[in-house]
Amino acid sequence: MRRLFMPCALLFLANGLLLAGCSSPNSTAPSAADAVKTATAPPPAFPFGGKVDSLNGIAGHTFGEPLSAFTDLRLLPPTPGVPVGPTRTYTYEGTNGWFGKHRAQVPSQLYTFLDGKFYAFVALGDPTVLRPEATFLLGPGQAQGANQFFWDGAQARAVYAENTMGLGREGRLDVLSKSMEAALAAKQQAQLKADNAQ
């Protein structure tokens, strides 16, 4: 799966510090003692990740659920010439939930499992339908440009982006588990180490 996530924490932290430093004093400003307390408390790194964390998956399924908790999935065949790793990706063919009811507008709905546990979700389709649903599920997000939004929480992260496809545009929503992403990276690192040792 192509990674669409880019490191942006420093940019967001810098913006937060710059905005805080630019505020004008007023009569409702906190006292000097309160200001010191506030200044020493670190700001949340990602204030736009609350809903992606509370959802921790997609509507109806949380990350880490076993494959047996899902219905109407069809395993995608492995890509020729690419070694099979610890993940398996399935396409959703059902009609339940928002994504099932909007299959005509969002035809590609992919569920990835790591060692049989729900790890990531990707939806591709009409941006006029997919973008409002992403915002409904995850909140407004942090914009990076006109057509890309990030949600980054402690447990999960998501990105929505639009790209030109033929004569139109295609929206893409990626949602993944951060702990399972770390577990996958550790497995890949261990495999690489074992391959290099031979």
Structure description:
The protein is α+β, with helices and mostly antiparallel strands and 198 residues long. 33% of the residues lie in helices and 28% in strands. It has 6 helices and 10 strands, in the order αααββββαββαββββα. Strands 3-4-5-6-10-9-8-7 form an 8-stranded antiparallel beta sheet. Strands 1-2 form a two-stranded antiparallel ribbon. A hairpin with a 4-residue loop joins β7 and β8 (148-152). The two termini are 27 Å apart.
Question: What's the arrangement of secondary structure elements?
Answer:
Blueprint: H1 9-21, H2 32-40, H3 50-55, E1 57-58, E2 61-62, E3 73-75, E4 87-92, H4 97-101, E5 108-114, E6 117-125, H5 127-138, E7 142-143, E8 148-152, E9 156-165, E10 168-177, H6 178-197
Antiparallel strand pairs: 1-2, 3-4, 4-5, 5-6, 6-10, 7-8, 8-9, 9-10
